Amino acid sequence: MDAATAQGSAAGLGPVHAYLGLLLLVAAERVLELAVSSRNARRAIARGGVESGRGHYRAMVILHLAFLPALAAGALLRPAPPPPAAWLAVAAVAGAQALRWWAVASLGDRWSTRVIVVPGEAPVTRGPYRVLRHPNYVAVIAEMACLPLAWGLWPLAVLFSAANAAVLRARIREEERALGPEWARAFAGKARFLPGARARGGGGA
């Protein structure tokens, strides 16, 4: 390694550590998210909840388990300064986390990473669900795209966004079917992901 290369690598260590710290913060959020999900799933099952979508759930878990380690590996293999627009990507990730927890708080103990529907419970239409069917998935989409871009890892942004789109397609189809006609009526005319964009079908979670 020549002197110029060594100097460039050393200059990139600080930003790399900062990016890895961001990934650790997101990982900690994921642990908290799973704890809340597990508690709420137990409560929903105790109230007579019925679970659907187990077929796609394993693929979703594998995707999310691979995401953060892949980004960490990508950053370590590319110890260059982050792109000029990195802070915009970080801001988008922070906004995604805020939207996710707004959705979680709005659903209360109905929110879970699993599709569990308690028969007879009325649709939740408060918070971001006033205008969107799936605000939590908007947060996931933004995070999958922007967290890699915060370090210029655009191939990983494309790869994981494409995989996430495939998983969400199956997830949303199963979830909206499980939520049933009352949810379909309550969310008729509301967009799945973007306010003002109408969506066919039912449901919101």
Architecture blueprint of SSEs:
Layout: H1 3-46, E1 50-52, H2 54-77, H3 86-107, E2 115-117, H4 135-149, H5 154-186
Helix pairs in contact: 1-2, 2-5, 3-4, 4-5
Detailed description of the structure:
With 205 residues, the chain is mostly helical. 67% of the residues lie in helices and 3% in strands. It has helices at residues 3-46, 54-77, 86-107, 135-149, 154-186; strands at 50-52, 115-117. Strands 1-2 form a two-stranded antiparallel ribbon. Helix 1 (3-46) runs antiparallel to helix 2, helix 2 (54-77) packs antiparallel against helix 5 (154-186) and helix 3 runs antiparallel to helix 4 (135-149). The protein is elongated, with a radius of gyration of 19 Å. The termini are far apart. The model is unreliable at 1-12 and 201-205 (pLDDT under 50).
